[in-house]
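Worked Example 4.2. Read the sequence first, then its structure tokens.
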Amino acid sequence: MKILITGTTGYIAKRLALRLLDDKHELVCCVRDMSRIPDEIEEHPDVTFIKVDFLSPSNVELPKEIDAAYYLIHSMATNKGDFESLEERCARNFRELVVKTNCKQVIYLSGIVNDNALSKHLQSRLQVENTLKSGHYGLTTLRAGIIVGSGSASFEIIRDLVEKLPVMVTPKWLNTRSQPIAIRDVLTYLSGALLNKKLYNTSYDIYGPEVLTYREMLLQFAEVRKLKRYILTLPVLTPRLSSYWLFFVTSTSFQLAKALVDSMKVEVIGKASDIQEHIQVDPIPYKKAVELAFQKIGQNSVVSSWKDAISSGVFNDQLAKHIEMPHFGCFKDVRSRNIHNENYTIDKIWSIGGKNGWYSYDILWKLRGIIDKMVGGVGLRRGRTHDNYLEPGDPLDFWRVLFADKSQKRLLLFAEMKVPGEAWLEFKIVKNKLYQRAVFRPHGVWGRVYWFMVLPFHSFVFNGMINALANE
């Protein structure tokens, strides 16, 4: 069967694509930025790619011979304020394109919406569901709550809290109940619903076997990690203070923190249904889901992460718009070193950042990350998805990978820290010589002031970094 997938570079879609390819389906993957095609499927013979931005899909036609489509586009972490209207517009444009094809079914992954007082995020999900309905195809909506898996937003936030804070002073919403579900169960439901006519024009809640408060999830996570943790709940933390608390303690962006706090005040408990009669799933308990996630992390085989989303940083543009570094009106720091072992240097470059650090004056990099977090930036807490593998779109501390090609011996990063301008950092090897180039395009007077303020640190930070990369 020929299956259309949207949100191809997202947390769910990237994993679902691999599952569907294992099931021998042919995929048509929609991407907004062709430079961000996942390496795992880029060369697969059963995958074709279409460049389309569903916010403004001008001059785009989907292949007519499509059997089914997955709608996996969400804007929860967007920097733009009115994400509800953006999501509604995306869904409407998607529907208008799909009705021109032979698509028989659209499968939409939404959120559980059983509470009367929904958050803006869940209200938006319900609005998208209504927008996707059409007489031309059957709509199947699967509504999930907290998704637990390596790289999921909820998993990484809980991990940050548990592993960094022996004692937690927390907001009262930690007593809100939820019904978490393992990522592998979500994928089983999504793939199992495919072209099942009994599921056309229906919606189902999908959830794990336990109803847990967020407090219980934190403590059970700590048990899996063999950590003793204490939690004190205060009723006085306002939603805004709660958002700042999540933002400063975890790797989440402030936009996502606000959306999460808004949602965490609402109970997310699934309604019983006959879904098991159509898709056989034995839901995994929460602690088992956490254990399986850490197995993936230990094997360095995390397929996708919520941090891969461009909206987890500071810009929503396509990466391709930033790949060409400017030459005029910029400040530059260019250094070079002869290298004796090219493979060693390439491996060091591809392992930079995250828990490996930046090889020189790492304390200053950490300090810069703290300052960035204090002024509303992403800081260093995002780390990196893989220890020694990079592809375009990956987060790398407070950078975003624009270009990563070992065959071309080049890595290009774009700064997502808060700076009065735009910054690039490039590593490139040409004829056994390593070139390290930092380029900064200032915005106004403050951009120029900023460059000269940090310039004294370049002499030893950048110098030490290139020495470490060049020398065994």
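Now turn to a second chain, presented in exactly the same format:
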Amino acid sequence: MDYVKAFLTGGVICSLVQILLDKTKMMPGRVMVTLVVTGSILGCLGLYEPFAQWAGAGATVPLLGFGNTLWKGVKEGLLSDGLLGVFKGGFTASAVGISGALVFGYLGSLIFKPKMKG
């Protein structure tokens, strides 16, 4: 049942984002920033963690979950290192995910030989 909840939750989030892209004039980059900031705000308010516990990967994998991860890192960094922790906490918390995306993206580019659109 956890897989079903994760699939449906992630699908609803992606569907809402697609509707936002289709029905507004927002560019994809702005929508992505909006999602990260929304995840951070919901995390700050204490609303995202219970949602993520319930939905599992359906809530933690999309950009909303990345925003929440950044917030948790900033909060932890602030508590442990003070003002300097505000700047390094988000990087520390999200380093593994960002590194994985870079490594697997690079490996994918080696395997599939991407080409520029003509």
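Notes for the reader: The chain has six helices and no strands. The chain has one domain: 2-112.
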